[in-house]
Amino acid sequence: MLLNVGDLSAEDLFDYCIIGTGPAGITCALSLAKNGTRVVLLEGGEREYTERSQNLYRGQIVGDPYFPLDELRLRYFGGTSNHWGGLCRTLDAFDFEAKGAFQDTKWPIAKDDLDPYFQPAADILEIPDLPGDQPIVGSGFNHIHFLQSPPVLFAEKFGERLEADAGIFLLFDANVTSLETNGESITGAQIVDSDGNRRRVQAGRYILATGGIENNRLLLWSNIQTNGQVVKAGNTLGKYWTEHPTFTLGEAILNGDFPSVSRELSTAFFAPTPDTIIKEGILNCGLFVNLVPHEGAKKIIADVACVAPDLGKWALNQLGKRLICVVQIRAAWEQEPRAVNRIELSDERDALGIPRPRLHWQKGETDLRTPQITARRFGEYMARSKIGRLRLNPWVLGEGDMPGDDNYGGFPYFGHHIGGTRMAASAEHGVVDSNCKVFGQTNLYIAGSSVFASGGHANPTLTIVQLALRLVDHLRATN
Ligand SMILES: Cc1cc2nc3c(=O)[nH]c(=O)nc-3n(C[C@H](O)[C@H](O)[C@H](O)COP(=O)(O)OP(=O)(O)OC[C@H]3O[C@@H](n4cnc5c(N)ncnc54)[C@H](O)[C@@H]3O)c2cc1C
Questions:
Q1: From atom 41 of ligand 1, which residue's Cα is the shortest distance away?
Q2: Nearest 10 degrees: Cα torsion 382, 384, 386, 389
Q3: For residue 206, what are the β-bridge partners?
Q4: pLDDT tens profile 149-167
């Protein structure tokens, strides 16, 4: 049912307080509100987009060029799912391990721990079963798959159900400003609406699901308010933040049929095998081989014809025939989790008086090597197998800097905010344990990609939903 902030009284006590209505928060709320369980679901934004709420998402960026923080995320009912792309893939089993020298990619859980939640998550996201990856013999690469959600817009799909559920108390314009603690448990969440009504929400357990930047920001701010008592061993809080850098690596002219690229399916996906990753000392990297439409193809062929006239002539002949001959190669890859990439609080405050976030984000040496090595090995495989010729962009060949932005091929797949409250085996290395419970608190849990210890190359939302469903099972089992 719908409530206003002003409707809440000091006597109201809920079983669960969930903060945020993106995929993570809505998944938790719908699964928990059963058999008389009372769930209060707090959304800081309104039912629809408003400038007032979105403005609270502004923040500073230090380091490499990045999108303004209030452009990628959406602060209203349904969260960023209101404009996500719907591309889904699970993390690889290998993503949960330490990858060679990169010990910080290790999670305290394995893919097996999330597998039971694939089907329920797939039902929520309306995706079919994921075909297995196929090794391409002798290449060092797998042909991999992504699934396409319609995309499910969480507020649109689940809004009516949330409002009709007698166990769910849904509030819009309920901005959580900080969490209170007695040092061992969370004792309340402070909220305020845009008219200045303030309340303290009390529940047995709290789930923070405000997205991969705000989860960090709220905890950092709550720690300041409580003298470090919310995340007590807070040395990793906000740190080891990663994205999936997504850039065009180059274009390829194909001599004939290329595995799995067809006119019907205009994109095919590939990734280096775990053996290649370890051998090359890189991290995980998804390659997108995109069919280039006729007009774009002509220009690329003209460029290639300058250096390879015969191939250019052949390719021009193929245009318009059944053969697919020009593709663009893009990559989205895993960044090395490093403490220097972090969310911290800036000196500037938002309209609610909370310090705005400052994102420090810089691609390191491994973050450059991963796409460079992956692209070169893929190009070598193409040449060896005589299936085509790959022309790599200068930065991929080590000449010059990466482009500040990368508009070729449309909107980059940025918006994957990973880490900062990472899952770890001990409080020394992370913020939450393997059940997503904050170390040192009896009743505070985190849902969302901020708990990922590392991010592989897969888009995060399927894993977010799997983790949320697993969290709900844990909460039910320990009630
Ligand atoms: C352009 C774009 C395209 C994307 N495409 C894909 C894709 O194809 N595949 C994929 O897997 N992922 C994609 N993503 C990422 C995906 O959108 C996120 O992984 C997902 O939305 C995260 O869910 P969440 O519930 O953790 O956070 P969010 O969806 O960000 O929800 C957070 C919620 O918390 C609320 N909130 C914030 N602060 C407060 C507060 N103080 N008090 C109360 N409420 C608060 C917000 O209003 C919001 O409702 C994309 C992202 C972008 C930006």
A1: 176
A2: 40
A3: 17, 444
A4: 999 999 999 999 999 999 9
